[in-house]
Design a protein that fits this description.
The chain is α/β, with parallel strands linked by helices. The chain has helices spanning 2-12, 31-44, 56-66, 75-80, 96-105, 120-133, 147-157, 190-206, 311-325, 333-352, and strands spanning 24-27, 48-52, 70-71, 86-89, 109-112, 137-139, 164-172, 211-217, 229-235, 241-247, 256-263, 266-271, 285-290, 299-300, 356-357. The structure holds nicotinamide-adenine-dinucleotide. Nicotinamide-adenine-dinucleotide binds next to helix 2.
Length: 358
Amino acid sequence: MIDLFKEVSEYCAFDIDPAHKVPVAIIGAGGIVDGAHLPAYKIEGLQVIGIYDVDSAKAKDVAARHGIPKVYATLQELLDDPQSIIVDIAVPAALQPDIFIQVAAAKKHILAQKPMATTVADGLMMAKAVADNGIIAAVNHQLRFEEGVAAAHKMVELGWIGNVTNVTFEVNLITPWEMWPWAKDLERLEIMLHSIHYHDVVRWFLGEPIKVFCVAGRTQGQYPIGETRTISSYSYDNGITALVHANHINRGGDNRAEFRIDGDKGSIRGTLGLLYDYPTGRVDTLEVNSQVVPTDGWTPYPVTTRWFPDAFRGTIGSVMRAIATGAPLRSSVADTVGTLRLVEALYQSMDSGESVDL
Ligand SMILES: NC(=O)c1ccc[n+]([C@@H]2O[C@H](COP(=O)([O-])OP(=O)(O)OC[C@H]3O[C@@H](n4cnc5c(N)ncnc54)[C@H](O)[C@@H]3O)[C@@H](O)[C@H]2O)c1
């Protein structure tokens, strides 16, 4: 079994080929850049040459603490800097399309934070800008690179659990929404900002569903105005199903974040350690129980990295590899339009009380 795990762990490895490394400039000096992007880039020894934020004091503080040599005074200054090859954008989603289009027009390759945009129309416009300008552009759907999720995907591809019959994500958390004051008044909250990761991963495993149904709720006393509880179900051809269930107002104090993939020859189950104590986190776990390879019951796969910050090495590394070799992206802008379409369908279902065909 340990030998069999080798192919899986090689698929999950992050180390960026030194020959692929190119300088990066960053737009946005917020919590996620400070706490995950930059720590991941430090592990990889990447060169971050400059940063821009509308809040220049914040940009200066982040630059000083992470050893970034330039703080751009304007977006134009960043765009005009010939030194950067990739621009890493991490601003609230409603502001991202406009910035993205300008970066694409400057012919810089892009890694854009999720959600890439808040509407399918904006997503399509961004995908067109990528094609028109001949750039490489990925979305930071880094859950596709989290070691447990990526290992599970590889095990499915290798046929260890046969044909997949169901994918489930279940999280029950106390989420510190106060960390994102700009999200307080968002009508569309939970799926747009959080569960979009799980919905994107369900698509990665199963493709586009035929139909989705979603119900949502709010809990008295919650800080944001948007939905903080969602239950989404998917149906596919041949009776294949998926479920995403998220609650962010867990007053029981027993945070849980689990996923499971069932097949007709076995199952895979895992936990997302990050969410047990966000943003500090704990180890991620993964186990497989297969009738195809010799597991003899639930057998742990040794997850040795974490969603934060390690999976962020994966997304930036995929952009660098695509630039250097033409390798396909795991979470391209063009593909992510499908995730936005799915999110839109889930909100339509939530609002109408009806299932929505895709
Ligand atoms: N797992 C993940 O991938 C993950 C986790 C958290 C946040 N995010 C996403 O990352 C983005 C940023 O989140 P955050 O937690 O860092 O938020 P944050 O509020 O901590 O930071 C956002 C930053 O963007 C800056 N900003 C706003 N408008 C700007 C503009 N026009 N130009 C330049 N900078 C601008 C703000 O000044 C602020 O510093 C959001 O889209 C969020 O959904 C992703």
